[in-house]
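Record format v2
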Amino acid sequence: MSEQELRNAVAAADAAINREDFEQVMRFYADDAMLVLQPGMIARGKEQIREAFRRIAEHFHHSLQVHQPEMRVLMSGDTALVLARAELRAVLGDGQPWQATRRSTYVFRRDPQAGWLCLIDNSYGTDLLDAPA
Amino acid sequence: MSEQELRNAVAAADAAINREDFEQVMRFYADDAMLVLQPGMIARGKEQIREAFRRIAEHFHHSLQVHQPEMRVLMSGDTALVLARAELRAVLGDGQPWQATRRSTYVFRRDPQAGWLCLIDNSYGTDLLDAPA
């Protein structure tokens, strides 16, 4: 049940990203969440994360679509590690289609009131080990 | 400072594993920790995790050595996602050397008294996405 709630939260967050409803997206992040924008570039807190989503949307000319058709959830009490295959699609400025697949890692905590909130959003997964520390 | 404490805890846990001091190893796990033994096979709680380490040690004829020369730490408050390149070496029953490299994912929480404790120990990292759910 709890795992299904978490899967629902991830799917709802992706749907909100895809329609660029970033106020809704922010409801799935904890106040002190961190997001790995690129290896070595990190957004901390809701203000920076919201701004990061706005910039990403602009970068992709408002065409980015995220789907995570496959997930594994590892839970310990109110903390969960989510492993997901993230499929990203967009159309670039020159009209060319763009796509990428990532193996993402997220850490969520369950808040008694707000439900599952993302604390650590690292869509690069263990590929960060290949980037400079 | 806090990140260095976490790196020290991981190194100390590895050293304890390598000398098969599993009581010491258990000090680095939270009471409700979970360990992915193999894809689909999970140990929960200190009793099961201690027993898992004993079986792993036997499987490798008490020769297993773990080193994690490279790590990335992503922190949000008292929660951290650790990404590590884990190098495992052992000598098998037939005297042949065995080795493996994994890209591991761990979730730690900082306890005010006990310091950083592992909640989720998944040495398979995002490779779990390749295994049956």
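Residues 36 and 122 of chain A are 5 Å apart (CA to CA).
Chain A has a mean pLDDT of 96.
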